[in-house]
Amino acid sequence: MTNLVLFGPPGAGKGTQAEFLKEKYNLVHISTGDVFRYNIKNETALGMLAKSFMDKGQLVPDHVTIDMLNAEVEKNTDANGFIFDGFPRTNAQAEALDKLMEEKDSQIDGMIALEVDDEVLVKRLLERGKTSGRTDDADENIIRNRITEYYKKTAILKEFYSAQDKFYGVDGVGSIEEITQRLSKVIDAL
């Protein structure tokens, strides 16, 4: 089993690369955002619980998110592994994910971070905003704030995974194929 945490600031190309990697390695891509939307739309017990916090403008507690991720892992017991996208975002979440994987007799093999210069990210997101319909991709100030928030809140995870010798930074600039090749090189060496 190969279990990866795919990381990078908004616009780094995580979603695009996850699609290629899941096909190439037969992995299940678990995007926290997609899992939240699915559970809320289908009014699952966990979705309704998450929504109750979101409706008040509060963060969804880690245990609720972990329970949702656990349900996704359970749905895919025959998977060759998982790509976690959008989770973890804090040390506590990383520790909870390690515990979840241990309970499945598995582990996180690596955290791969797509590294992209801020100006490239802004340009990419503004371009995506022209077609995505996402309002947070259309305003440069909001984009820059999202990038700043990413670095403030998630840089700590680089230290968490580096301490376990599981952090891998990958250049996220170039053609989609070039970036996929760089990621594959890291994954093949795990």
TrEMBL record:
<dbReference type="InterPro" id="IPR033690">
    <property type="entry name" value="Adenylat_kinase_CS"/>
</dbReference>
<keyword id="KW-0067">ATP-binding</keyword>
<feature type="binding site">
    <location>
        <position position="32"/>
    </location>
    <ligand>
        <name>AMP</name>
    </ligand>
</feature>
<dbReference type="InterPro" id="IPR000850">
    <property type="entry name" value="Adenylat/UMP-CMP_kin"/>
</dbReference>
<dbReference type="GO" id="GO:0004017">
    <property type="term" value="F:AMP kinase activity"/>
</dbReference>
<comment type="similarity">
    <text>Belongs to the adenylate kinase family.</text>
</comment>
<comment type="pathway">
    <text>Purine metabolism; AMP biosynthesis via salvage pathway; AMP from ADP: step 1/1.</text>
</comment>
<dbReference type="InterPro" id="IPR027417">
    <property type="entry name" value="P-loop_NTPase"/>
</dbReference>
<keyword id="KW-0808">Transferase</keyword>
<feature type="binding site">
    <location>
        <begin position="11"/>
        <end position="16"/>
    </location>
    <ligand>
        <name>ATP</name>
    </ligand>
</feature>
<keyword id="KW-0418">Kinase</keyword>
<feature type="binding site">
    <location>
        <position position="174"/>
    </location>
    <ligand>
        <name>ATP</name>
    </ligand>
</feature>
<keyword id="KW-0963">Cytoplasm</keyword>
<dbReference type="GO" id="GO:0005524">
    <property type="term" value="F:ATP binding"/>
</dbReference>
<dbReference type="Pfam" id="PF00406">
    <property type="entry name" value="ADK"/>
</dbReference>
<comment type="function">
    <text>Catalyzes the reversible transfer of the terminal phosphate group between ATP and AMP. Plays an important role in cellular energy homeostasis and in adenine nucleotide metabolism.</text>
</comment>
<feature type="binding site">
    <location>
        <begin position="86"/>
        <end position="89"/>
    </location>
    <ligand>
        <name>AMP</name>
    </ligand>
</feature>
<feature type="region of interest" description="NMP">
    <location>
        <begin position="31"/>
        <end position="60"/>
    </location>
</feature>
<feature type="binding site">
    <location>
        <position position="128"/>
    </location>
    <ligand>
        <name>ATP</name>
    </ligand>
</feature>
<dbReference type="GO" id="GO:0005737">
    <property type="term" value="C:cytoplasm"/>
</dbReference>
<feature type="binding site">
    <location>
        <position position="37"/>
    </location>
    <ligand>
        <name>AMP</name>
    </ligand>
</feature>
<dbReference type="GO" id="GO:0044209">
    <property type="term" value="P:AMP salvage"/>
</dbReference>
<keyword id="KW-0545">Nucleotide biosynthesis</keyword>
<feature type="binding site">
    <location>
        <position position="93"/>
    </location>
    <ligand>
        <name>AMP</name>
    </ligand>
</feature>
<protein>
    <recommendedName>
        <fullName>Adenylate kinase</fullName>
        <ecNumber>2.7.4.3</ecNumber>
    </recommendedName>
</protein>
<dbReference type="InterPro" id="IPR006259">
    <property type="entry name" value="Adenyl_kin_sub"/>
</dbReference>
<feature type="binding site">
    <location>
        <position position="134"/>
    </location>
    <ligand>
        <name>AMP</name>
    </ligand>
</feature>
<feature type="binding site">
    <location>
        <begin position="58"/>
        <end position="60"/>
    </location>
    <ligand>
        <name>AMP</name>
    </ligand>
</feature>
<feature type="binding site">
    <location>
        <position position="146"/>
    </location>
    <ligand>
        <name>AMP</name>
    </ligand>
</feature>
<keyword id="KW-0547">Nucleotide-binding</keyword>
<comment type="subunit">
    <text>Monomer.</text>
</comment>
